[in-house]
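REVIEWER CHECKLIST
Item 1: Sequence provided? yes
Item 2: Single chain? yes
Item 3: Sequence as submitted:
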Amino acid sequence: MKKIEMASNINQLKTSYDARVEIYEFCTKNGVGECHIMIHADQNRSSAAAQIDGVMDTYNHLKENELKGYVPVFRRFFLSDAANQESLVCQHLDEEKETVATSVVEQAPLDGTKVALWVYFVKDATCRLLDCGLVEATFGNYRHLWGGTTTLKDGNSEQQTYRLLTGYATQLAQENLTLENDCIRTWFFVQNVDVNYEGVVHGRNDVFALHDLTSKTHFITSTGIGGRSADKNILVQMNTYAVGGLENGQINFLYAKDFLNPTYEYGVSFERGTYVDYGDRRHVFISGTASIDNKGNVVHVGDIEKQVERMWQNVEALLEEAECGFQDLGQMLVYLRDPADYAIVKRLFDMKFPDVPKVILLAPVCRPTWLIEMECIALKEMQHPSYKNL
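Item 4: Structure as written out by the authors:
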């Protein structure tokens, strides 16, 4: 096995598998260890198969050596060309013996490579595939249910979204959970988002109304972004995360009303962010966030640098509402509409977030005038004696 050496001063690993690793580890004195890891291919001129092999060799090495005791719970592969690469990833997955909720989506890494991989590891977790199709990760006092890539081939984007969400609600019901009380996070990847996102909005709104998820109750933190499958008939892909065993008060929602407006004001139904409190920590999930003001207007149309700055202000305001800050970020995903903006965005993010695992992707945002969007996860040590530890 080839050695992975720690970089000199930050949380990066250089490998001889032609891959680069960014790693964030979070541990509390009495709690469970968690890691968010980004693996980036480095051989820009090599074949897709060689890059995927390098990423998977690095992933396997991390599991077997650097992260002994940690278990992969959820992962997402970002591909530059799903039609030619998805089957290569699936070949690796078919050879595995482990159970991991897995997402595969065409969202090209903008560093010029063909593949990147985000993995969420948890120490001493036990994962199993439930009869309902979700992956259950148990570690401590709660059940964490992850859904990898879920798709349907028939119908338009509204019909696919409606059926995906109603199917997910049925999966949760089989585990004595509900969409309205136990789902923490969803992701929707939309083929040709400029055309098909409106259908996603209508389908989601209809399902949420059936479950009493309204402006008077709450919605679910979510990202709806451009992304596609190898199959041209799949217009919408969905990923999900729910937690079983939470009590009233452990789930809270973020608004940052001085910076952002409620999403229902422009006809969509998702929360800007959610935080979940455990006895020893807080998990914060920030939805896809762009350059928008508290009236719902796109701010700084056509100016990528100013859109980045406003987007950061919005995200920071949401984090502050959860008593967190940028220093608590464990990972981030950055979505660009125009690959020509990559060099500017990379420079800005590298200066502001040199130590946060991240990947910058080609994935158009749901409004054409939004040039950039980001989502992130933060983790912070807290003391909540009334709740059980993670």
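Item 5: Key structural point noted by reviewer: Residues 63 and 70 are 7 Å apart (CA to CA).
Item 6: Recommendation: ____
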